[in-house]
């Protein structure tokens, strides 16, 4: 964890003299030069240099294995650090039922006093709360939902009026970038578990970050008067601030996360679904409303922080003798991953960091703390492992690209239920009940083949399409566009199903139009497909079939106005959802005039 102010060495103690400080800067500049040439000074002998080799995959895997094995020997007698150790083991693939993880989870849950509905950390307040909540969420978010809610409330209660977090009961303050970083990480874990966190919490935190960021893009540990001096800027804090803004952006806007500062990034954040807490399944679902228009400010702040990091890439890391050395690399991994930074100064930051960390690992498998930081062991081991394992990357669901026609089924598509009312999304995993789509399957088999008219200018013969070959339809968007306007409602229904399984939000507008289809079965299929793409098993709160509740009524009821009302409502709701969530490249600018126009009309 980031040390408390009582344990953080002063600037003067870090730099023994101006002479030494000047020497260190010159040394780092020289190291940068040699680094770019592929040379290392880590084991410098006069007259000799060693070629730096980026850490090989096997080296990384071996270092992780050694580190995890060492971490499993941790006696779990330090209740403060237990959450970090437990989370790291879970991130490495250890089972929640393993003896080591089970002991850790027991220590964490004992801090949650169910009778008092209160979480009681042993020390370090929000640092401890965050690593505890991350461990519980990684272990089993449904089983530990009451504890996660309790800890999340503890974190929310600690937010200061200015929007950041600080040490409790320390009087007037302007916030702490490191503590705020951890508080937001904890709330993000709660959000992934299904705990509803009001928008205001994240909006205020975003405003605090934009106010406390220096003009050069950097962040300080304890900003004074909400504007730090350049001398107070730290690499650790700049990465912490940038990472926190990325977390806020992920939660509030659920959009691709690559910032303008790295236009070549291929990183994209999938849409993170928030479920009602398992303990309140029967209560009305709380839906996150539209956040304030703060995305441009967040994106600009992230862009500025990237510019600072890029400019100071070789000077930003703490010295190996400083207690924030390993903390820096885990913070780097989180900020770079969430913001889509694939390179910094044209360097692969992960390869650079892996090479440095592997060289620091001791024969025992641990990464050794400096003497003054020994009480917090094995923090350094956890931070190093989380970096090497790319732990943050695992928190971002990956969208599988739909194959071209003839390339087989969409990965993960086989065996998935067609009826999303039988599907529950939990922590990025699918839980299903057996579903019977016999009628739909019979429809697919019975349709056999249809003929599509040739495109006039191409003067080609009519195409015969085998609709019973379900896998061949998935991902063939040009074909599905034709099928979606076919005269046969059965064909349009099949098109809606296949568009959903193609799992491309870019095609949601086609499905939204099918919500108004004159055939109810097509509209229902389109709604189910949208539920799949949006990762919303229950949709936006509308009933699946507006006529179902009248099935057992003997009275003659005109269904037409009932169906029309249902279609109007779901079309409006899904249209609004799409305008808010559609891919960023389909928006004209940050202000998204199409969305504003739609909201005014409705």
From TrEMBL:
SUPFAM superfamilies: ARM repeat (SSF48371), Terpenoid cyclases/Protein prenyltransferases (SSF48239). Gene3D superfamilies: 1.50.10.20, Leucine-rich Repeat Variant. Residues 256-291 are annotated as: Disordered. InterPro entries: ARM-like (IPR011989), ARM-type_fold (IPR016024), Terpenoid_cyclase/PrenylTrfase (IPR008930). Coiled coil: none annotated. This is Prenyltransferase and squalene oxidase repeat protein. It comes from Rubinisphaera italica.
């Amino acid at each position: 964890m980031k040390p408390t102010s009582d344990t953080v060495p002063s600037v003067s103690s870090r730099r023994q003299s101006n002479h030494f400080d000047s020497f260190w800067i010159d040394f780092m500049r020289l190291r940068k030069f040699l680094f770019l040439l592929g040379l290392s000074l880590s084991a410098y002998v006069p007259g000799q240099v060693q070629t730096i080799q980026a850490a090989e995959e096997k080296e990384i895997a071996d270092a992780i294995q050694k580190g995890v094995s060492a971490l499993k020997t941790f006696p779990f007698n330090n209740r403060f650090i237990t959450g970090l150790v437990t989370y790291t083991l879970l991130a490495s693939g250890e089972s929640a039922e393993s003896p080591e993880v089970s002991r850790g989870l027991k220590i964490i849950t004992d801090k949650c006093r169910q009778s008092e509905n209160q979480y009681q950390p042993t020390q370090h307040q929000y640092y401890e709360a965050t690593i505890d909540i991350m461990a519980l969420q990684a272990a089993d978010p449904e089983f530990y939902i009451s504890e996660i809610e309790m800890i999340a409330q503890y974190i929310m209660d600690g937010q200061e009026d200015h929007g950041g977090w600080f040490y409790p009961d320390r009087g007037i303050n302007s916030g702490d970038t490191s503590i705020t970083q951890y508080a937001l990480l904890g709330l993000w874990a709660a959000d992934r578990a299904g705990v509803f966190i009001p928008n205001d919490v994240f909006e205020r935190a975003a405003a605090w970050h934009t106010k406390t960021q220096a003009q050069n893009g950097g962040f300080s540990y304890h900003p004074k008067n909400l504007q730090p001096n350049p001398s107070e800027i730290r690499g650790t804090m700049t990465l912490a601030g940038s990472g926190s803004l990325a977390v806020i952006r992920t939660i509030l806007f659920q959009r691709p996360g690559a910032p303008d500062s790295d236009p070549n990034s291929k990183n994209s954040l999938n849409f993170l679904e928030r479920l009602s807490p398992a303990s309140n399944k029967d209560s009305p679902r709380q839906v996150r409303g539209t956040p304030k228009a703060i995305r441009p400010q967040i994106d600009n702040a992230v862009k500025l922080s990237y510019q600072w990091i890029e400019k100071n890439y070789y000077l930003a890391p703490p010295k190996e003798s400083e207690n924030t050395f390993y903390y820096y690399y885990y913070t780097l991994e989180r900020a770079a991953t969430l913001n889509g930074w694939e390179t910094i100064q044209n360097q692969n930051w992960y390869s650079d960091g892996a090479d440095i960390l592997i060289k620091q690992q001791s024969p025992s498998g641990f990464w050794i703390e400096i003497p003054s930081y020994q009480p917090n062991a094995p923090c350094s081991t956890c931070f190093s492992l989380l970096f090497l394992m790319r732990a943050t990357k695992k928190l971002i669901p990956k969208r599988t690209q739909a194959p071209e026609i003839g390339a087989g089924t969409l990965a993960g598509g086989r065996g998935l239920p067609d009826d999303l009312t039988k599907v529950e999304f939990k922590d990025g995993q699918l839980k299903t009940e057996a579903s019977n789509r016999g009628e739909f399957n019979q429809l697919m088999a019975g349709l056999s083949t249809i003929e599509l008219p040739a495109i006039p200018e191409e003067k080609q013969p009519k195409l015969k399409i085998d609709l019973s070959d379900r896998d061949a339809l998935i991902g063939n968007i040009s074909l599905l566009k034709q099928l979606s306007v076919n005269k046969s409602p059965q064909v349009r229904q099949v098109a809606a199903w296949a568009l959903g399984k193609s799992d491309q939000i870019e095609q949601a507008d086609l499905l939204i139009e099918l919500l108004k289809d004159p055939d109810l079965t097509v509209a229902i299929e389109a709604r189910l497909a949208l539920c799949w793409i949006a990762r919303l098993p229950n949709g936006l709160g509308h009933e699946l079939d507006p006529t179902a509740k009248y099935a057992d009524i003997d009275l003659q009821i005109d269904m037409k106005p009932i169906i029309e009302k249902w279609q109007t409502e779901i079309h409006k709701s899904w249209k609004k959802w799409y305008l808010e969530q559609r891919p960023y490249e389909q928006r004209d600018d940050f202000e998204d005039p199409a969305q504003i126009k739609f909201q005014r009309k409705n």
